[in-house]
Specification:
The structure holds two protein chains of two kinds. By secondary structure, chain A is mainly beta. Chain A contains one helix and eleven strands; from the N terminus they run βββββββββαββ. In chain B, strands 2, 4, 5, 9, 10 and 11 form a six-stranded mixed β-sheet that branches. Chain B has a five-stranded antiparallel β-sheet with strand order 1-3-8-7-6, with no helix packed on it. The chains are: A mainly beta, B mainly beta. Chains A and B meet through β4, β5, β9, α1 and β10 of A and β4, β5, β9 and β10 of B.
């Protein structure tokens, strides 16, 4: 089975521009998570989808970040306008739904490395 | 301090030696997981240990969990150069239906051939 994929792998933009990151979870995985790692800091949770619904978006840093998962398949994370402190690696993860064990193991994508200049 | 802090931050050993990494956390947990990240790659799930378990094995990996001390350790036996990577512990808080992970900053393991 194909793993979690993310696009693009790298993005370099200028402050004030908009960037949209995409995540394709493993087929059949209802849970989708976004995390990010800012330079020198730990990987932090951003939000959690169950199918197309936002289950928890407590980690979203501010309203410049917008995540969507229309149709409950792939997800996008838009940053608008981007600021310097948004630079980092954005990870997406997915897990199955139903039964704690299936939900607990999250499979991560390779990440998108975002650099805001 | 952080939930899920790994210790040491960096570890350099020779091939064939054992590597031990520790993790401490602060809140009550449902489970604790260890992940590996090779340079430029995504996070690979290694092992999950639940709060009612004390020890778990998977191949050359051995994980222990001490909930009274809120700590865990990851032991990699007979290390190989290919084990060179960053290792992260991550916890899932007890209660609730969200299985979001709280990560530490990681331990960078270098295995020298």
């Amino acid at each position: 089975e194909a793993g979690v994929t993310q696009f693009p792998s790298h993005s370099v933009i200028e402050k004030g521009q908009t960037v949209t990151l995409r995540c394709d979870p493993i087929s059949g995985h209802d849970n989708l998570y976004w995390y990010r790692r800012v330079m020198g800091k730990e990987i932090k949770f951003l939000l959690h989808f169950v199918k197309e619904s936002k289950q928890d978006e407590s980690g979203m840093p501010n309203n410049r970040f917008l995540a969507e998962r229309t149709g409950g398949t792939y997800s996008t994370l838009k940053v608008q306008p981007a600021e310097l402190e948004d630079s980092g690696v954005y990870f997406c993860a997915s897990s199955r739904f139903g039964g704690s064990y299936l939900q607990e193991t999250q499979y991560f994508g390779p990440g998108t490395r975002l650099l805001v200049l | 301090s952080q939930q899920g802090e790994e210790d040491p931050q960096a570890l350099s050993i020779q091939e064939g030696e054992n590597a031990t990494m520790n993790c401490s956390y602060k809140t009550s947990i449902n489970n604790l997981q260890w992940y590996r990240q090779n340079s430029g790659r995504g996070l690979v799930h290694l092992i999950l240990i639940r709060s009612n378990e004390r020890e778990k094995h998977s191949g050359r990996l051995r994980v222990t969990l001490d909930t009274s001390k809120k700590s865990s350790s990851l032991l990699i036996t007979a290390s190989r150069a290919a084990d060179t990577a960053s290792y992260f512990c991550a916890t899932v808080k007890s209660g609730g239906s969200n299985y979001k992970l709280t990560f530490g900053k990681g331990t960078l393991l270098t295995v020298n051939p």
